[in-house]
Amino acid sequence: MLGLKIHSLPKLKNPNMVAALPDMGNVAGIGVEFLIKNLKAKLFAELYAYWPPAASYDSGLVKFDQSSYKFHYCEKENLIIFSGDFNPSDPRRLYEICYEAVEMAKKLKVEKLFSIGAALKQPNPDEPKIFAAATNPNLVSVLKKQKLTLLDGKGQITGFNGLILGIAQEKNLDSICILGEIDNPNVIQPKAAKLILATLFEFLKIKPLDMKDLEEEEKRKKFMEQQMNYMDNIMRRDKQPGIA
């Protein structure tokens, strides 16, 4: 069960929409939060989810934090952004959120919906690939002209970032999915998010933004990985049999 609160609908003409929730490596989460912050997007509506069925506490003080999902708009870029803090695994909840996001897109006469996220593969460490898929053959041709690597063979795009494409297709809303290659779903992946954003800017005809923060985050990530590998090697060495 969801509750929708609309503060005021933006007056945009056939905007594009980016809709994504946190996923593996938080690629999608990093991407949409970057857009909201750097494009100075304005909040115009919220979805309130009546879950999780629990209250948290901190030092004896009870807190009730409902999951919420937000719609922002950027007037200059003619863009709608849908984001949230939680990508539910419960199929019913997932369908509800996707339908609400697509209904808002239809209400605002969105031209194209873009979903972003992670593709779990074994990337080239120096240059991970960007993969793409679309909901109709005409858009697939556009992806080819952009020289993007199509998702080949057969497979599934799971979670919100995949399901929303199916719901959008059902509602005759043109949609494109852009996925960044990662090798570890348990570590944040700012480089994949940066590559996705660069591709997204081309599609949306948005002037490239300064992504220095994501580059710095990638450096911190690599440093932490080096430290963890160093400690792991020491522990393995110490476990080697001694010589009498």
Question: Sheet with the most strands?
Answer: 9 strands, mixed
The share of residues in helices is 25-40%
CATH class: Alpha Beta
SSE pattern:
EEHEEEEEHEEHEHEHH
Physical arrangement of strands within the biggest beta sheet: 1-3-6-7-2-8-11-9-10
- CATH structural fold name: Rossmann fold
Which class of secondary structure composition applies to the elements? alpha/beta
Report on the architecture of this protein.
With 244 residues, this protein is an alpha/beta fold. 37% of the residues lie in helices and 25% in strands. It has helices at 27-38, 91-107, 137-145, 160-170, 190-204, 212-238; strands at residues 2-6, 16-19, 42-49, 56-58, 61-63, 67-74, 79-84, 113-120, 130-134, 149-150, 175-182. The strands form 2 sheets. Strands 1-3-6-7-2-8-11-9-10 form a 9-stranded mixed beta sheet, sandwiched between helices. It has a two-stranded antiparallel sheet with strand order 4-5. 36% of the residues are buried.
